[in-house]
Amino acid sequence: MPNIPENGLLNFLQKFEQLPAEVLSAVDSCTSRIALPKKTILLKKGKICDNLYFIEKGMARNYYKAEEKELTIDITVEGALLTSFSSFVSRQPSNEVIELMEDCQLVAIHYNDLQQLYQTYPVMERIGRLIAEHNYNSLKNHNYMLKFNSTTERYEYLFNNKIEIIRRAPIGIIASYLGMSIETLSRIRSKHEI
Fold it and tell me: pTM of the predicted model, to two decimals?
C-alpha cells in the first residue's frame, strides 16, 4: 500500500466510505494545500466557483452582499467543506461571497479534477452524491430553523451543535447567520455560559 500523505480532505471523504489506496492517491495528487490570511476573499460575487475547499484549520463564511448589507448564510470551521455549492455545481456566477474569518489552511481541488475523479472512480461519484445530499439537508434544516424556531431556539441549536462558531465568530456575523439583530443575540447570549 502506498504511503498517502496526511490530507484532511482524504480523511473527510473516508467518513462517507472507505477508499482504496489507489483512489486516495489519485485524490491526493489532484489537491493542493493553501495557507491564506484572515479576510482573504476566496470567491467574489459574480465569479464562478472553480474550487472545492476543505478547511484543515480556520474559519470562513459565505454571505450575500447587497448595497452595504451582508447576510451570512453559512459559517464553516475546520473539518468541513467550503465552497459555493450552487456555483460550483451549476458552473454559473455566484451570488455569494466567501471570506476567510481566520488565517486558514485549506486543501483545494479544482472542479475539472473532481469531475475526472468521478469519471474514473465510481466510488468518488457516490461520495459526491452523499456529500451533496448532506449539504442539501443542512441547508433545508437551517432554512426551517430560521422560519419556524424562535430566536432563543436558534441560538441554543448553534450553542449545542456548533459551539466553535459561538466562541470564535464575531457577534454581528453570528446574528446575521441566525437571522436576528445583534441586540437580540446579546440578550440571549447573556443567559448562556460559553
Answer: 0.88
